[in-house]
Fold:
Amino acid sequence: MTSSPAAHVLAQLKANHVAANAVGLGSPALDTWYETITDIVTDSPDPMATIGAIAQLISRERRKEAACQLYRDCTETGPHFDHWRHNLKVAGSDEYPVLEAGMVALSGGYMQPIVYISNEEFADAVSVRAKTSELRNLLDQVDEMADRVFADHEGRS
Structure:
């Protein structure tokens, strides 16, 4: 007689639990976790869906644990000392971005974080806002220029 997929998963969990205890990695918390998971899956009307939901929850919680605890915008995961995010960009038609922004906070003697826009670095939010305001103004001017240039071109056609 073939066992169900859920029974197979529960057998794997039990074997792993026994192995963890055998090498000294067991604990009352691990015992409680194992018993709780086994009870939830065994009592479930859809054991495989329950196992899937538990696996998703564990995965989601592990991602939270791996996320940087110091800077919400840091894209580094796991243990790390230097923090950065370099993925804010407007792509150009070639390999170089038209505009790129990010953040860096390095460990060591100089822990002041910076936010950068292309090659310009800013050490405080006020300075960043002044530059982004300037960029918005520039982009509005580019839009207005484009309207004029293409209207002039169409007028000649």
